[in-house]
Amino acid sequence: MTETKLLRYENFINGEWRSPASGNYIKLINPSDGTELALIARGNQADIDHAVASARHALSADWGKKTATERGRILHRISEKVLENKELLAKLESMDTGKPLAQAHADVIALARYMEFYGAAADKVHGDTIPYQNGFTVLSIYEPHGVTAHIIPWNYPMQILGRSLGAALAMGNAAVVKPAEEACLTILEFARIAAECSLPSGALNIVTGLGNEAGAALAEHSGINHISFTGSVATGEKIQAAAAKHTVPVTLELGGKSPQIIFADADLDNALTFLVRAGIQNAGQTCSASSRILIERSIYEEVIKKMSELYRSLDVGPANADLALGPVVSHRQKAIIESYLDMAKRDGLRIVAQGKLVENAPDNGAYVLPTLIRDVPVNHPLTREEIFGPVQVALPFDTEEEAINLANDTSYGLVCGIWTRDGARQFRLAHAIQSGQVFINNYGAGGGIELPFGGVKRSGHGREKGFEALYGFATLKTISVYHG
């Protein structure tokens, strides 16, 4: 029996595909069936050094000489080329991450939209003139940081690359990207697409590898001027500590334990799909997933019953079957999620509904059943800790004040959903809840490309997405001219 030769991806540095300095590679595994998918370079300090040097050179070469309008036109071309490669990118994302094809297609559209949005915004970032003393003219201008580092997680490779890299390139930075070792094929394909659209060499560099090798080397590098990181709180703390050694600014988008709050006057028919979908989308592996459902006691049983019916209709299976849920990204992640479900059973929590695994699901897939658990104590780990899987907990409340306290009673503050027809209550809660985003009578799991996104407390700091991201990827310079 002959061994199938796996497709091998190299690092992308200075516009070229380069073998890793170590000569070593990492196998990517298809979470739907456990088969080997591809080989990616196992980058290390030497590869990061080359990538940073390439980015630094690009700032003084062709890329650094581009006007904002010229940078925008390149991003527009990339957007169009992404759409031309939609089927390929969606297929790779689906196989690599385990997400259903429909969700992978949506991520391709989002990536293209990020490039389009930031391409159009590149020449719209204006400074100010500042009133000052007589005889002076003072103005402020925005300039790129220089070399920006982008450490991308495995749950939404295309989307998070788009929101982070698009804004950085629009502002004239040169980038070094370190994607997650669990899922990164679409990011590598994006490098090919960008090169075909005449993005100058060195403006984008990609080094794959392990977090404690390539990722740590990038975060600690003295040639980096800004770091964008999306991922766990624990890793975010290490990133910020590494950046502090060189006094480098950091944008951190970390975890969440996001609530949706349902009052008795809510439009339940409209809310119901959002209540469930926001928790199980991408198999719950979403930082802004709605993992806590807070329900006014008078409608608690009704909402639990209706959510349970939806849960029982959810099918789980291989990504290419395009069901409600695919597998989680790896067996490691599956074990983490199932440890929480075991805890729920051990502690006697009430599991009221689960989805079902389809009959033809491969035996070695990393499948987890979506699970709804009711009456979970406020101080229980399932209520307080980010599970990062398709698990939602439901809790009742009696008063508006109690709802606010429950919503704020975690170390996170990323997203919140509020369901009520009472206009005054909508704004009272929107102001009272500690969260980077608040959705009223909807829940966007981060919302559209145009909406600034980020958290408070241990959910991180800084904002990506929307126009606000452009300011984060730039530094403000004040110029004071004395002319008498």
From TrEMBL:
Kindly provide the name given to this protein in its UniProt entry: Aldehyde dehydrogenase family protein
Active site residues per record: E253
Keywords on this record? NADP, Oxidoreductase
Aldehyde dehydrogenase domain mapped to chain residues: 17-479
**In which domain of life is the source organism classified?**
Bacteria
Q: Which CDD domains match?
A: ALDH_AAS00426
Pfam families referenced in this protein's UniProt entry, alphabetically: Aldedh
Hey, which family's this protein in? Belongs to the aldehyde dehydrogenase family.
